[in-house]
Amino acid sequence: MRRITTRAAALRRDERGGMIIFGLFVFLLLLLAGGMAVDFMRTETARGRLQATLDGAVLAAADLDQDKDPVEVVRDYVAKAGLDPFLIDVDVTEIAGQRIVTASAKSDVTMHFMKMVGIDFLPAPARSTASEAVSNLDVSLVLDMSGSMEGDKLDQLQAAAKNFVGIVYDTMGAEKILLNVVPYATQVAAPAGLLDMLGAFLREHSYSNCVSFSAADFTETSILEAAALPQGGHFDPFYTWGPLRYDDVTFVCNPDPSTEVLTLASTQREIEDYIDGLVAEGNTSIDVGMKWGAALIDPDLGSTLNEFANGPSAAGINPVALWGDRSTDKVIVLMTDGKNTTEYRLPATLGTWSDVYIDDARDEFWVRQTDDRDADDDNRYSNDTWFWVDGRVAGRNNFWRRDNRFPHGGGRIEDNVRRLTYEELFSRVSVYYNAYYHHYLQNFDRTELDTWYWDFLDMSLSTSAKNARLEAICTAAKNQGVQVFTVGFEVEDDEAIIMEDCASSRAHFFRVSGGGDLTTAFESIARQITELRLTE
């Protein structure tokens, strides 16, 4: 008995084996913690798989091009993933131009280790919402109508542009689109009524309707911020002989109404008919086209455009979205087949009155000699002071007359003719015709021709000056958040660089070499700007 008591006492004092018991408790705790981590990972894996499946399902169901019932699309996605038992609810909301799809699901994941603490399962919930909506669109289609586009190239451009318009209208609907078409050549013609509504516009004549922008005007998109908008001159700077006719000359500012910019068109058909009526002639002013393209989607001009298009009752209503409006995309599509060329301008110091007179009854031009003519015994006209140029047939019946010898019934010549303004003169004859017939032949002095032609056009803008203006307006538009797409149609390498620099990115520039490529480029742009966007 004593031995047993002694052993029991020794056992109480013996601490050997205590760590084993503690270690067993620690092991059980680590096993439980590790097991819980495994259970949590299994739960998160299940939730992640469920979430990914719902994300794909609602994206597909929210697609406005989706023909199937959105609810069935979600159910099919979930079923094919083998997760259909976990789908709880699918909700679809459709409003004009928008579809919102929400789906929720939950999977109860059985626990392996957490059962040890009384937890048999953990929920793995998932919820996903996708909304695809067609944004509003303010877009300017800026098209090169210079002489190099004449013929097949114009036909190809018209087909490509109409296809662009069709895609945009079919995808978005007319109520979400504000589309402008800006044809440009040496200048851009605007509707007379619109220009006259601009307080800064300085009208000098009614023959045509263009603006001579200053370099500063290209640093901003607005056209209303300009201190002054001088009217562009109406004249033919090229070597056109004979009296000008409305339909067979190349005026710097084309007077044909079919060449005016089109804005706030009411229907797709109106735009397509307008594109069909475009004509190609003149030089290339990409910078001026881009300036107008930007101005027409600038909200500063919006209420003026609306009043011009719809009358005084529309005053104060702005159909052009404000900058930063997240519901509207602003886009410019700028197309050219070449590079900026000379933009001809008349000297600012020209004044009003020319030194050419006209007999209105016979459409005959007269020039009066202001300096003494050299006496010439062999020239019986040496004392005559008026030179008569038959305005109907160039090169015929050109001769000198004395002041009092009007050839049609006698009398003083000055009593039977009327002095022309420069606007009137250049609506009838080209600058070169005027220089040759009204000045060179007046004194038979070659310097008169040089002065009145080459020096006369000395204020014209060069390619380099216009390239700088193009760069400025492209930058101004991009700074306002405008997506600028550019299309170079059979352009040279240096021209391609300029157009690529103007675009919002390299991916926004399309260099094409044929009609098929041109159509593809315009179609690609149309698809991009009408692409459905995930808003949530």
Automatic annotation (TrEMBL):
Domain Putative Flp pilus-assembly TadG-like N-terminal: 17-62
Organism: Oceanicola granulosus (strain ATCC BAA-861 / DSM 15982 / KCTC 12143 / HTCC2516)
Official protein name in the record: Putative Flp pilus-assembly TadG-like N-terminal domain-containing protein
Pfam families per record: Tad
